[in-house]
Amino acid sequence: MKIVLIGSGNVATQMGLALYAIGEEITQVFSRDITNAIILAQKLNAIPISNLQNVNAEADLYIIAVKDDAIENVVLQLKDVTGLVVHTAGSVDIAVISKHIKNSGIFYPLQTFSKTKDVNFENIPLCIEADDENQLSVLKKLAKKLSNKVYVLNGEKRKVLHLAAVFAGNFTNHLYTLANQILSNEGLDFDIIRPLIAETAQKIEHNLPENVQTGPAFRKDDLTLINHLNALENNPELFNIYQILSNSIKLVHKY
Amino acid sequence: MKIVLIGSGNVATQMGLALYAIGEEITQVFSRDITNAIILAQKLNAIPISNLQNVNAEADLYIIAVKDDAIENVVLQLKDVTGLVVHTAGSVDIAVISKHIKNSGIFYPLQTFSKTKDVNFENIPLCIEADDENQLSVLKKLAKKLSNKVYVLNGEKRKVLHLAAVFAGNFTNHLYTLANQILSNEGLDFDIIRPLIAETAQKIEHNLPENVQTGPAFRKDDLTLINHLNALENNPELFNIYQILSNSIKLVHKY
């Protein structure tokens, strides 16, 4: 399969590396910034381009991994291609492609990516979608080469999944950040809390999270809740977050 | 060292098992419920008791691992002992013990425990405190046998640490629960999001969380933020949590 990779950010980098590793041919890497295109293209033995007018019109698959609001602009510049055009976004409708292009699809990896931390694609859920059965089967075949966890999901379910991922991924990382803020204000190192974070995540590998909840709000420890809120009284932002999440724990666990 | 373990919950169970594993002698296990005392005492080759009047007055160390608001009541029943009395709570002052008992201390493991999931104490930060240098050195010696991560912390710092732990542990587990709620409303299994949770936690093993934040609020993707809030408009609780955490991400990352 000849693949053109459009984008050079976290998702494009990790997906490009994974496709290259299973022997797919990446013909071109596009980035508006030619330096970024070159850096990634070198790793994938591909040709870097920074202008979509130079895109190879004969590729089999075009993977768009750019910011959500830039996808449609890319699609408009791919009008002449005949291959399959997919995007990798959780919350963008397939119509953004299909209203301009005949062969369209979705290739959404449910994971958090960094350019510098390689990931094992085998365990990454890949959510695919296509309007046409043939295109779906092409995507399914490719997805199964990359991952053991391939899901065919429509746009509505994919968007719900992305929303859940914001809670379970983005928001939890931000809670780690807030914890680090609290610690560093007292001269405590983030290292002291890393084992707790690791164990909290490991616990739900074989349990549902609602069955392993702990903490003052869960165990109805009002004294600690009040003490914690008092400790946060000069920080209205953390105070509000503490209160709203504690109340939510009480609500879910029928305090 | 002769140790009396007071409590039979998650902390008492895991700490008892860890102490037993390194060869310490647990002489008694107390629980108000004799059945619970018997279950844990059997694992520790100890004598179960359900009345503190029967406590061995000759032990070297009394570890109180009961609910925060029950600690002082236990202490009052230990007035005649001469050994060192410690509690394992993050947010309870040492004075709750020291105002009644001469030899007092803190032995606080910063971790989330379950009765049924054994943990490796070697990697668990153990925070110790004592009014007296001799008692501190006794606690330090024991702590270092259990863990490679021993911290001498005063009460103020320990309380801050506990507060940070609520954010990084209890609240993140609750976000997993909310994600599962969102998924199951659409008939999606929690399994699909487990790899994301694992990777999110693994990322901060060698990074600070503020340096690896991703997601719509971080990347200024207002369209997705609005779509997500619209999707939550019938669930004011999740709507509020989404909004307050997204705003907090914007604030920290100078959106």
UniProtKB/TrEMBL annotation, chains A, B:
Coiled coil: none annotated. It comes from the Bacteria. Transmembrane segments: none annotated. It holds the Pfam family DUF2520. Residues 124-248 form the DUF2520 domain. InterPro entries: 6-PGluconate_DH-like_C_sf, DUF2520, NAD(P)-bd_dom_sf, P5C_Rdtase_cat_N, TM1727-like_C_sf. Residues 2-79 form the Pyrroline-5-carboxylate reductase catalytic N-terminal domain. This is DUF2520 domain-containing protein. It comes from Pedobacter changchengzhani.
